[in-house]
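Record 1 of the preview.
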Amino acid sequence: MNCSCWFCQMAGASSALVDVDQAALETNTALATLPTKTLISNELANFAKRVVKNDNVMDIYLQTTPGTARVGGGSLGTQDINALAIAADLQQFIKDTFTRLDPLIDLDFRFITTKTNSDIDFYVDSDIEVGGSGTTLGIALSNSSTSRNWWELALNGPALQNQADYLRYATIHEFGHTMGLEHPFDNGDGDFYGSTNSGASAYPEDSVMSYRSPLGGSWPTWYSDNDIKALQEIWGVEKTTPVSSIPKVEPASIPIPTPAPIPATVPIFRLLNRANGKHLYTSSSTEKDTLSGLYFNYEGIAYNAPINGNQPLYRFYKPSGGHHFYTASNSEKDQLVANNSLGYTYEGIAYNVYSAESAPSGSIPVYRFYEPFGGRHFYTSSGQERAEIISKLPHWQFEGIAFFV
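->
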């Protein structure tokens, strides 16, 4: 049986805006400080926690291909919708958003390729018709059955297709509901900011949960300081431990969700070059034993890689810099092989991993950082290590998820 404890209908605001300041969109420094209680719905937060109660991981399914899709529909009831394809840039924006949010709150996110056991199903719909006047731009519906709780989000594709930043704003607005955020003008729980009139409450710069047109002329595409504080109050701040430099991998501290059965794995050894401070990752115990004590310090097992992973991880060496580089991108590998001027020597396949599209439930992301001054890369599967580098070592540029193991 499906039921709905929440129904959000995002109505149309102003039309597309021009002269967008992308830096302002991605920073979104709030104009005013909003009390967190005006952005937090206990009803939504409690439902969100029931959704992820088994592993504290929000599994997200994106309906990327067009066609008929059967949805639970929350209070609207089970029905078929005509889903549109999700453009590649919107897919990447969503993934980048959660990669950026993950180290800020104590809730993890994972993208999956089937909605059988998903926590959020995201659609771009050809039309959203719920009755009443006006155009519905987005909708968030909560669903419950005897086996699980989950969210369904849908955006009005035709209404938003020519408004890139408005589309992204609507996207993070609806995702905000799935993590416990409410509209600042909503007084259903006895609090609100400014006014219960959406046109006189907070601006989008104050919170992406607003309906009001932006004061600065650009739709924000990142959560405001107020939004982040509210999310941290709901979920807590990502747990970290102080470090003075890039820490060693501590496998016991890596948060690993309850995994589904996966193929046999091999340990990946991590070594640190004492001369230049650069890391090497290898599945070869012979290479590990040979290099340990010579110029390298052995730092332990970085992670375990799947023997039958479907994506090769390619290894390169740059003699001029004295460091190795690893990529699971076929196009990146081909570019480095073809362009000798970049100075990389291709050393072959290091070991197998999973691509984002094929990663099974229970797999772990491996994150990639780049340090431009030394031209070196760093890889870690530790959420704590990733968060520490982002907060303590700003000269290391976070490049997102490199692959899964």
